[in-house]
Design goal:
The protein has about 900 residues and is α+β, with helices and mostly antiparallel strands. About 40% of the residues lie in helices and about 15% in strands. The chain is built from 29 helices and 29 strands. Helix 2 packs across helix 11, helix 15 runs antiparallel to helix 16 and helix 15 packs across helix 29.
Length: about 900
């Protein structure tokens, strides 16, 4: 039928072609014509950060992000693929493109989706994944409608995943960009068609009984056709600017019932008001797996007659003497979509599901605000992470990396590393120490409280001379350490050292009244017993010998007896205080601490040194050890270094809360709090001597508050507890979002803050890899041999009796004692005297009388001072007298006869 020179039958046929009504009757051939897409590369999107949270939906369009990605690839005349692959356990999200554009794809995704986690996947592997699903499915064609569901604003892609969860299935979209010239020609042709047809929508007619009536007639066939043309024109116009694509889709499932379910989901989810002129259709296809798994386009064409009739199917282009055939809508099972509509089919989920995570998104500073005047003093911490970049583990920095660095001298202002176990603290510490030594040749000491990890640095290039000491262990697989708490560094006032030692005791052990007073009195007396004058700092015996823990342990009995407490209180005080001191004297701890001489601290500060405390099980003893080492170091720095000398050395303290504890309250807590305050003040002061500290701990709230205040560099790995996050966050000027985010930091990442930063930066730490593979046994043996050669005389201890403490010639005097004992046994006249000695008080005069009788009977060697000490040991041995008072007898004799025969 013709209406005013237009054939409505032809219009109806064209409209059917626009709407692809012929597909409603289609029985697809099992042998589809296919167009190969070439070699493709894929990435699996393992997760995103929720950068869209909290943004106004009116101003922020998440869907537009994928449109931007697709638009970029459209300009490259590229192929784009999008896949969802579901299994009973998880759902995988994949994106692919031409192999030569793979790097552009990864960069584009990282730039568009901050902190996206990508994993490269080869085409063969993707094909294998699809082949493992099943051969039930078909083709997807049509124009999708962009819509959300419910109050939760659930995306269409999420509805698919939720509906198919627990099944084996796949949703595949393949697209190939069209030539801009082709799109422009098609758009012009559509406009011309609209102009040619739209004027026939409404026509005026006249007639009536008198032939003078007129009315307007609307041709609904033409109206619907023009409406569909207008929809097509809008798509083509959008495609001119954002890109246009030839698109086909596939759906697969393991079972027919699941394929039917997926098919219905796709049509219900994507069909809508905007699905014009071509609604979403899902067409079952036999042997669909072959086509889908090989990533091919269905290339079956419309019959030429129909293609020529389609408004933008196939037509001839005439101009400048040439004729060229142009085609656009000539394929049966492909849909022409602009970038915006294609993105609706390829949206990345915004909700977490098995196999695809959604992390919290937080913005950190990325710009360096510090200026380092001398590049040789630039100390690198790690790589600053920008949300719009690919995150990969790294061992060495590249020139293109954004570096978090600081002035080397600022390390003397101390640092803090916190985070839960497994968060990357040790790796970070090793990386900083490696950089410090290999690049800047700054030595360091590690005080490792709980684990044995830092010995592995021996396996790194440049650390062949590192010393590893196993504090508290004395077996063959250990490197013993020696330190006498009462030995002061030359040049330090004795009074000052005593105060330091007392503070260490109080910080390490719980002492209730009057234990601190008894301890203080005992310490002063053992120094006096050894001949030290507290005021003049001189030894009246002329020797540089210091008390030991044995001296302190036995002195407690004497001091408590002299203080006049009642018997019950005396017993309680003595038992409690001696128990604490005794814990330092037994086993490997005793061999290490109950010694005459310390390994010189000066020899340990010129190289990398690691002190392992794992073999010391008692936390109080560990704290005591850490404190004494710090005291020794502080005294050395005060006497050997001048102020403002720069950065000379770094000490890393693991599990620092054992010494720098957050202590509050009264009673014994107040005593301990004052001692902790002493050590925090020590840290604040020692920086002026070129000594830096790096404090590592798992729980910030366990550390003394001043520890957070007095550390410039702060490195925060993952922290879970809110109170810990709030505390450390406030000390780093974190936003509330950043404070919450550090509970989900990945291993190897940390929030880093130092002077010059407005807010912390998110930094990825280098992975510290070992260069060699020496076993611990080999490392310990090598170090043990080196230590033995250099410090061989410090592990000797001569203690054959209470008088040995005053011997100035501690060598092989054991033979001297044997000779004396043999001589005495031969003297019959001495038997009665020995019987009398059982009840003697062993006063100095009694010993003088003994020596005179022995000398008169032929023992001329008693004129030697050391022989007299050996004789005292012989006579006091097996005497019915407490060890404390045996020592007092020797002390009284020494005071009465100060070097009388020398």
């Amino acid at each position: 039928m013709r209406l005013h020179n237009i054939d409505t039958v032809e219009i109806r046929e064209k409209d059917h072609l626009l709407r692809k009504s012929y597909l409603d009757k289609s029985n697809l051939s099992p042998d589809l014509n296919m167009e190969p897409l070439g070699q493709l590369s894929f990435v699996k999107i393992k997760g995103l950060a929720n950068f869209w949270e909290g943004k106004d939906e009116k101003e922020f369009d998440f869907d537009a992000i994928m449109s931007d990605v697709l638009s970029g690839f459209s300009s490259l005349q590229s192929t784009f693929t999008f896949l969802l692959i579901g299994s009973p356990k998880e759902i995988g999200v994949y994106v692919g493109t031409d192999q030569f554009n793979q790097s552009i794809l990864s960069s584009s995704l990282h730039a568009s989706y901050p902190y996206a986690k990508l994993q490269e996947v080869e085409m063969d592997e993707m094909s294998q994944k699809l082949r493992s699903i099943g051969n039930n499915g078909g083709i997807i064609t049509g124009i999708p409608t962009n819509k959300t569901f419910g109050e939760s604003k659930s995306q269409q892609i999420e509805r698919l995943c939720t509906g198919m969860y627990g099944s084996s299935w796949a949703y595949i979209v393949v697209a190939k960009s069209m030539s801009p010239f082709q799109v422009t020609l098609a758009h012009e042709r559509v406009l011309n068609e609209i102009d040619n047809v739209s004027k026939f929508i409404k026509v005026s007619e006249s007639g009536g009984s008198l032939g003078k009536e007129s009315w307007e007639v609307t041709n609904l066939t033409i109206q619907k056709y023009v409406d569909n043309l207008n929809s097509l024109e809008e798509s083509m116009d959008s495609g001119r600017t954002m890109g246009m694509w030839r698109v086909a889709g596939y759906y697969l499932a393991d079972q027919f019932i699941n394929a039917t379910k997926l098919r219905n989901l796709i049509t219900s989810v994507y069909n809508g008001e905007q699905s014009k002129p071509e609604r979403i259709r899902t067409l079952p296809v036999d042997n669909i797996l072959y086509y889908a798994s090989n990533f091919q386009f269905p290339a079956n064409e419309l019959p030429r007659q129909k293609a020529m009739k389609h408004p933008i199917g196939v037509w001839d282009l005439h101009g400048e003497g040439i004729t060229k055939e142009v085609h656009c809508y000539k394929y049966l099972y492909q849909t022409i979509l602009p970038t915006g509509e294609l993105s609706t089919l390829c949206q990345i989920p915004r909700k977490e599901m098995p196999g695809f995570y959604i992390d919290q998104y937080v913005e950190f500073d990325v710009a360096n605000r510090r200026s380092i005047h001398d590049e040789s003093n630039s100390f690198t911490v790690g790589k600053i992470i920008n949300g719009n970049e690919e995150i990969k583990s790294y061992e060495k920095l590249e020139p293109s990396n954004l570096i978090y660095d600081m002035d080397l001298m600022d390390l003397s202002r101390h640092g803090l590393i916190v985070g839960i176990t497994g968060g990357g603290k040790s790796n970070t510490s090793k990386g900083l120490l490696r950089n410090l030594w290999n690049k800047h040749r700054i030595p360091f000491m590690v005080i490792e409280s709980a684990k044995r990890e830092y010995w592995e640095m021996y396996n790194m290039e440049g650390f062949e001379d590192v010393l590893v000491f196993t504090l508290g262990a004395e077996d063959e697989n250990s490197v013993p350490y020696r330190i006498n708490p009462f030995e002061k560094i030359e040049g330090v006032p004795l009074q000052t050292h005593i105060d330091y030692v007392l503070s260490t005791f109080k910080a390490s052990f719980e002492l209730y009244a009057p234990m601190p007073h008894v301890l203080e009195t005992s310490i002063y007396q053992i120094y006096e017993d050894r001949g030290w004058d507290i005021l003049s700092n001189k030894n009246k015996y002329g020797a540089n010998v210091f008390p030991t823990l044995d001296d302190l342990y036995y002195k407690v009995d004497v001091v408590v007896d002299n203080l006049g407490y009642d018997q019950r209180l005396k017993s309680d005080i003595t038992a409690a205080l001696k128990a604490r001191i005794h814990s330092l004297r037994v086993g490997g701890k005793g061999a290490m601490l109950n010694t005459d001489k310390s390994i010189p601290i000066a020899d340990l500060l010129s190289r990398p040194v690691i002190l392992e405390l794992e073999d010391i099980g008692d936390d109080d003893v560990k704290a005591f050890m850490m404190g004494i080492i710090l005291v020794q170091l502080y005294e050395y720095r005060r006497t050997k270094l001048t102020r403002n000398k720069g950065f000379e050395h770094l000490i890393l303290i693991e599990e620092a809360h054992r010494l720098l504890a957050n202590v509050s309250g009264g009673g014994e807590g107040n005593v301990r709090a004052k001692s902790v305050e002493f050590f925090t003040n020590l840290l604040a002061e020692i920086r002026s001597y070129g000594q830096g500290f790096l404090i590592a701990d798992q729980v910030p709230t366990k550390l003394a508050p001043d520890t957070l205040k007095n550390t410039n560099l702060k490195i925060v790995h993952r922290i879970v507890m809110q109170e810990d996050r709030e505390l450390i966050g406030q000390s780093m000027n974190m936003t509330q979002e950043q404070i919450e985010y550090i509970s989900s930091l990945r291993r190897g990442f940390a929030a880093v803050y130092a002077e010059g930063d407005m807010r912390p930066k998110l930094v990825q730490m280098p992975y510290v890899k070992e260069d060699f593979d020496y076993s611990r046994r080999t490392v310990i043996q090598n170090v043990k041999d080196a230590v033995k050669n250099e410090f061989h005389h410090y592990d000797r201890k001569y203690d054959f009796g209470p008088a040995c403490a005053f011997c100035m010639d501690k060598c092989n005097r054991r033979e001297e004692m044997g000779k004396i004992k043999g001589f005495i046994v031969k003297q019959n006249w001495l038997r009665d005297m020995l019987e009398d000695a059982k009840n003697a008080e062993f006063k100095p005069d009694w010993f003088e009388g003994l020596f005179e009788m022995l000398e008169n009977n032929g023992m001329s060697s008693l004129r030697n001072y050391h022989t007299r000490l050996c004789t005292l040991n012989v006579f006091l041995d097996n005497r019915d007298l407490e060890e404390s008072y045996k020592r007092e007898a020797v002390i009284n004799y020494m005071k009465h006869n100060l070097l009388k025969d020398e």
